[in-house]
Write a structure and sequence with these properties.
By secondary structure, the protein is mainly alpha-helical. 20% of the residues lie in helices and 4% in strands. The chain has a two-stranded antiparallel sheet with strand order 1-2. The model has no long low-confidence stretch (mean pLDDT 82).
Length: 107
């Protein structure tokens, strides 16, 4: 994974545009979404690092991104343990349905 990243802001209007953006981004493994807002004092034209801790793992350093409220939720299931015999590669739809099925009722 690269140590430095460039920044690009993309606005979407509704769930359909958001889904379209996700479909576009999934074609390039070097691009990802950050659920946050670039801080005012950060130059968006300069490559940036995003580390949560100093090299010696002591106190946290400031992130170039600020927490902001959004109208969407990000659910990270990369490390979700699937039932024995289930494979994302062999049956993606069943894996997605399994993940959805274990979410709280609100989803």
């Amino acid at each position: 994974m690269p140590a430095y990243f460039s920044y690009e802001y993309r606005a979407v209007d509704g769930i359909e545009e958001f889904a379209s953006l996700l479909t576009e981004l999934e074609q390039d493994r070097s691009r990802f979404i950050i659920r946050g807002q670039l801080a005012d004092d950060v130059d968006a034209e300069t490559p940036m690092r995003r580390r949560l801790y100093r090299n010696d793992r002591s106190e946290p350093i400031e992130s170039p991104f600020l927490d902001v409220s959004t109208t969407w939720v990000m659910i990270d299931i990369d490390k979700l343990a699937l039932p024995r015999g289930m494979s994302v590669r062999e049956d993606t739809l069943a894996s997605v349905e399994y993940a959805i099925g274990i979410l709280p009722a609100e989803f």
